[in-house]
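As promised in the previous annual report, we have extended the structural survey to additional targets. Below is the entry for Ribosomal RNA small subunit methyltransferase A.
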Amino acid sequence: MTIEEIKNLCKKYGVYPSRSKGQNFLLCEEALCEVVEASDIKSKDIVLEIGPGFGVLTKRIAARAAKAVGVELDGKLYAAAKDILKVYKNVEIINYDILKLSEEQLKELTGGSYKITANLPYSITGSFLKKFLTLKYKPDLMALMLQKEVAERICALPGDMSLLSVSAQYYSNPQIVSKVPKECFYPVPEVDSAIVRFEIKKTENDADEKKFFQIARIGFSARRKMLKNNLFNGFKGMGKEIFIAKIEKILQEIGLKNNARAQDLSVEDWKRLAEKIEI
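The corresponding structure token record, generated without further manual editing, is:
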């Protein structure tokens, strides 16, 4: 779709794209195809699309999936999508805030088995990932257009890890499919984007989830400090020398250096650490 076509649709439906709402419409055909391919849509799939806008991506989803469910917060874009997509019998558009969608509503819309595809507003990325990665009815897969910097943080390797990457990689296997320049959107955003594919882990994590994230949050509390010092400050239950010696022993047992920092640990390292630390 061209910029002129998008502008004409905005005029027709009285839509004024809002930067604060992350309303940047994807134009590039190549990027649209890459999002669809990353979604790995099969003929029996139900696909949840966040922010269908003018239905450019929705049409491609509907051509492959059993059903496409678009969740649109903006009232005018909801009306536009309903009108544009009315000829598609396997498309349902609802006017709702995706972050307020309950598990019961989600199950009613999708049957509990679904995939997610979205050109996600940057402002809700963190809240969105926290919600859908921790649901009882998690998606089978997500293909999301995200801010490039955030995508790179999510997919980071040990040495550059953050609490965000640890959290995302605890529940899924994220991978950057491709990077999308800002010029592929209208209006043009300030930053480039990237398509990230999240393959949701099917098996239950063997770690104590509450304990895992408690220790990880403490570990990342002061990024420049060594992990053992952050852990001491978070668990002041014994003398520093005794505690540090105990932590150093644990770090050695799991194959880490005494001067390791939180960003050096993989998800598996955090799991082993959580198993050995007594809270």
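The first strand starts at residue 25 and ends at 26. The radius of gyration is 22 Å. These points will be discussed at the next consortium meeting with the crystallography subgroup.
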